[in-house]
Write a structure and sequence with these properties.
This protein is an all-alpha fold and 305 residues long. Helices cover 82% and strands 0% of the residues. It is elongated. The chain starts with a helix and ends in a 15-residue tail after the last helix.
């Protein structure tokens, strides 16, 4: 902690009255959200625990439920499904006691994400549908769009491409209506994956291009790199290996310090070199050299196109 934060925490720890402790709980919660914004998950978790200790002590149920949701989300991000579920169910219990339908909807959505993480897709779908019923009752279009998107992911994981497309289109309708460009870009991308799996390459590329236009305009280099990579895979599936190489090299440049994504994309490029005609193979090697990348390995690698 920086010196100012240390002094603030020392002062908060000395507060004794119920109203003062409520104020301290809010301050700890805000420190938690600030840590989340900085990507400090461990620090956020510590702050939320300090906040929760006080909200439980003074009987502030609403704040207790909200903080429990945050702790569940942190556990979910690190893949600790058991801990995520424990905090989620605790929040749900408090929300049900309060009759807080928005909080209950959030808990059901979180349960869906946990089940999805465990690859229990039937349970995930049921949780999302329970959440959706309340969300629609509350008229929360943004929440409905997000839930439709997750239902699309669940259907896609189960290879039900028709259902996945229907859910994604319902999500997209609300995202476009609300001007949610970030959400729309994600949904365009998923619709591209659905079309790619069907080998509907013209539609696939059109969806990816719509997502890419947003990512590039918003300056999301990593998000754009992911789409470049998929455009490369799509071109390779059509036997257009030099076009694939163009996109894959852009992806490698965009991924920068993500070693795993760079290595995967390099393997895809090498796969294109091996499958290409002699003339295309020569052009691909020239493209690789022009990009200033290490010499292409000659040995057999585990390629993934």
């Amino acid at each position: 902690m920086d010196p100012i934060t240390t002094e603030v925490v020392a002062a908060l720890d000395k507060l004794a009255g119920p109203d003062e402790q409520k104020g301290a709980a809010v301050a700890y919660y805000q420190l938690g959200t600030s840590s989340l914004e900085q990507g400090d998950w461990a620090g956020a978790e510590q702050w939320f625990h300090k906040s929760l200790e006080l909200t439980e002590r003074v009987g502030d149920d609403r704040a207790t439920a909200l903080t429990s949701h945050q702790l569940s989300s942190i556990a979910l991000e690190r893949g600790d499904w058991t801990e995520a579920e424990r905090w989620c169910l605790y929040a749900l219990q408090v929300d049900q006691k309060l009759g807080d339908e928005r909080g209950i909807a959030l808990s059901h959505h979180q349960r869906g994400r946990i089940a999805q993480g465990r690859r229990d897709f039937g349970a995930a779908q049921q949780c999302y549908l329970e959440s959706l019923e309340l969300i629609n009752k509350l008229g929360d279009e943004q929440g409905a769009g997000l839930t439709y998107y997750h239902l699309g992911l669940v259907a896609q994981e189960q290879h039900d491409l028709g259902a996945a497309e229907r859910w994604y289109r319902m999500s997209l309708e609300l995202e476009e209506k609300l001007g949610d460009e970030h959400g729309a870009a994600l949904t365009y991308y998923q619709l591209g994956l659905v079309a790619q799996e069907r080998h509907e390459f013209e539609a696939c590329v059109a969806w990816y291009q719509k997502a890419l236009e947003i990512k590039e305009r918003l300056g999301d280099e990593y998000g754009a790199a992911s789409i470049y990579g998929q455009l490369g895979v799509t071109a390779a599936l059509q036997g257009r290996f030099t076009r694939a190489g163009h996109w894959l090299l852009k992806a490698i440049d965009g991924f920068q310090n993500d070693v795993e994504s760079v290595e995967m994309t390099m393997r895809n490029f090498i796969r294109c070199v091996r499958l290409a005609s002699p003339n295309d193979r020569r052009e691909l090697r020239e493209m690789w050299e022009a990009a200033g990348l290490p010499t292409l390995p000659e040995d057999d690698l585990d390629a993934t196109v």
